[in-house]
Amino acid sequence: MQKFSGTRIEAISACVPKTTVKTTDFSHLLNQKDMRKFEKTTGIRERRHAQSMVTAADLAFYAAQDVLKEIKDKRDIKGLVFVSQTADYKIPFTSNILQHRLGLHNNLFCLDINAGCAGFVQGLSCAYSLAQSTNGKIMLIIAETLSKILSNKDKTTATLFGDGAAALLISNNPDDCSLSHFDFFSDGGNFDSIIIPDGGYRNPYSSESLKWHSDNNGNLNQGIHLSMDGQKVFDFTLREIPKSILSILTDTQNTTNTIDYFLMHQSNKFILNQIGRALELPKEKIPINIDRFGNTSGVSIPLIIVTELKDKIQEDKKIVLTGYGSGLNWGNCILTLKPDLCINDLIEI
Amino acid sequence: MKTNAFLTELTEELELEVSLQTNTKFKDLEDWDSMGAMVLIGFVSDNFGITLTGDDIENLSDVQSLIEKIGITKFSE
Known about the structure:
The complex is a heterodimer.
Chain A: E1 2-5, E2 7-16, E3 20-22, H1 32-42, E4 46-48, H2 56-68, E5 77-83, H3 94-101, E6 109-113, H4 119-134, E7 137-144, H5 155-158, E8 164-172, E9 179-186, E10 194-195, E11 213-214, E12 220-221, E13 227-228, H6 230-251, E14 261-264, H7 269-278, H8 290-293, H9 300-308, E15 317-325, E16 329-337, E17 342-343, E18 347-348
Parallel strand pairs in A: 2-17, 2-18, 5-6, 5-7, 14-15
Antiparallel strand pairs in A: 1-9, 2-8, 3-4, 7-8, 9-16, 10-13, 11-12, 15-16
Helix pairs in contact in A: 6-7
Chain B: H1 3-13, H2 34-48, H3 54-59, H4 63-70
């Protein structure tokens, strides 16, 4: 477990595309009854999709530009961490491009992290470490355009995911004695549960990558698309996540009663309800926005801070952040949101 | 729970056109899919406090085998 003292989130902004895609827009995949079942189980009514020329880095740029308004001198920023699975290029890495685009000075540590739905908690841990070792401000950006890597002939993925970005300023104050804890888990044995099989160097692009393959339920994917073993991921989540949350609560002398909010990756409303039930949490402690944004991968946790917690942090709020997804990988964090946390209005571009 | 009530409630929850019987095979249901499996897992969790896995669902031959998996003592006529 990692432990930090005096490190905190100062400000947060989020950005989503304006284009709304409703479940009824998937009539080529789902009949009326399937749409009703889909909305009932996943909770997703609509999601945002980026236009073809808008990348994750573009959404990231607007979120980052917005959060930069909160600081007087950009030179206070000592590091930029960019978390995404949908970066602009294979080479170079995107944080370096954003450094220039955002007008940040070049004496800056830039780092990209390729991580999935647990990526926000991983990125936050990294940003906290950098804030402590540099004693400056760290910008953490997380951005995804998963809509660009989905097969529109696969109802298990096409309907599920949305696009978005968030940017945060992390700082360290040695006089602040509030503690934050992080705890991570990995199961690389199930790496293929959520995967784009082709296009890396294990399976380089070839004409085979463009052949369509059907699963047992008639969903069609090419090797360049994200495919997911939904049942395996579902089982993993219910098996591992509640006990991992209990573990960090116990290890930090917390209980579910000492936590104000449980901010969980918005994977699927049904899964969130099951986790909540396993932990015996009241529904008001688990904010949900999946109905409007779908599953935005690692972006979902900061996005929920922006859409659901703005104006609700009038006093210190102790929260648990829980990410889980591709890898398979999962992690939890307990930290305190302070009343002076700046939560900016959601940006739509 | 009474077996008949269980069958009726599960039929409604899964939004099936035909009423479930104890010998109904899930895989024979026209609408049976991964969302149905998720609804079933939720229904069993809510009513009996048992979390079924994907393998459990895969291994269910019919509704009777589901009742046995949940525990036959939890049902009455």
